[in-house]
Amino acid sequence: MNPRPGRSITVQTYHGTDIPNSIECDPSPEAVAMQTQSLRRGTLILAGARPLGPPTGRYNCHGLVFASRRTNVPAAGVFDEGVIEALLTRDEYERIPSSPQVGDIIVYRSDSGEIEHTGFVNRTEDIGSVRKVFVWSKWGALEEYEHLEKICPYGNYTIEYWRLKR
Amino acid sequence: MNKQNSWIEEVILSDGAFLLLGSSSVSRYVRMAGQLAYETTLRNQIESGLVSTDDLLNRARELRAQLAAKKQRDVEEVELAIIIAITSEIASETASELLIELSLNDQPPLTWISALARRLFQERAANILATDLEGARGRPEGERSKTTLCASSDAAGIESSSVLTIPPAFVCEDSLDSAVVDLAA
């Protein structure tokens, strides 16, 4: 169990600026069991979303992508608008128009333009002219999943792909 | 907490646990709590008077106390988040006081609850002022303390002319500025 929930660690961008973060407490077994009964979750599982690991409050989706599973980015519960946008710039990512590859970052942007979810492109499958993109991401304080890009709780958002500048 | 003791339907609690624990940003957490508040019958029970505002606020305090005593994010958080979203639409000083009270303690596992209460209180101050400034025009004096929860999710906030139920000291300058612009327009 997390000995000191809410604490921060030093994480910096490629440019050397500090990244706000916090390591939070885990969801209880009862809360985890309750969410497995969710009809919304059940629909996504039936559509092929595959849980990969246990739920943890240690890191969130952005913590998986930008902090190697060590912490939540940004710190949980704080005003977070623009934080992930700034991270992409300071880590020198650039948006790519199409044809995502394994290792690219997938960004889910809400109607208000805010980035609400990120993950990694895990694999792609070309079926005829259609490319199926599989994503590896963490859903908040819940599990990591492998899922198709649209088969997740953030699937109705605008999707972008980002890659390190060459 | 036993699910059977909850004021919220089991199916909504399950979806709520999935949506709220699955949120990585405050904006999404607030939006999900609001969405769940529109799905539960508790909201209708408040509107029809089957559940009083005082009972609702007491329930919120009870859940907060239970959650504060835990070391993990637990099922109480889901019910409490939904109740907070409902409370934010009630135009009364006691509802405002609860939101402030909940926003002050942001120690885990209350971090997200605190952020939710803070955000909803901030939005509430602006809504009430704007509604007041528009709604008070042309209404008879006798109607100005009526509080009604909106019937549809399209009509955000409350329909109320409870003028300045939040003490002016709580209203931020930004809200006042936008209200002035509204009035001028």
Layout of helices and strands:
The complex is a heterodimer of chains A (166) and B (185).
Chain A: H1 29-36, H2 39-46, E1 50-51, H3 61-66, H4 83-90, E2 93-96, E3 105-109, E4 115-127, E5 130-138, E6 144-148, E7 158-164
Chain B: H1 10-21, H2 26-39, H3 42-48, H4 53-68, H5 76-87, H6 93-104, H7 111-135, E1 147-149, E2 158-160, H8 173-184
Antiparallel strand pairs in B: 1-2
Helix percent of chain A reads 10-25%
DSSP strand count of chain A: 7
What structural class is derived from the secondary structure elements of chain B? mainly alpha
What separation lies between the terminal Cα atoms of chain B? 50 Å
Distance between the termini of chain A: 41 Å
β-strand percent of chain B reads under 5%
Helix-strand pattern of chain B: HHHHHHHEEH
* Rg calc of chain B: 16 Å
Contiguous low-pLDDT stretches of chain A (5 residues minimum) are none
Question: On the 0-100 scale, what is the average pLDDT of chain B?
Answer: 76
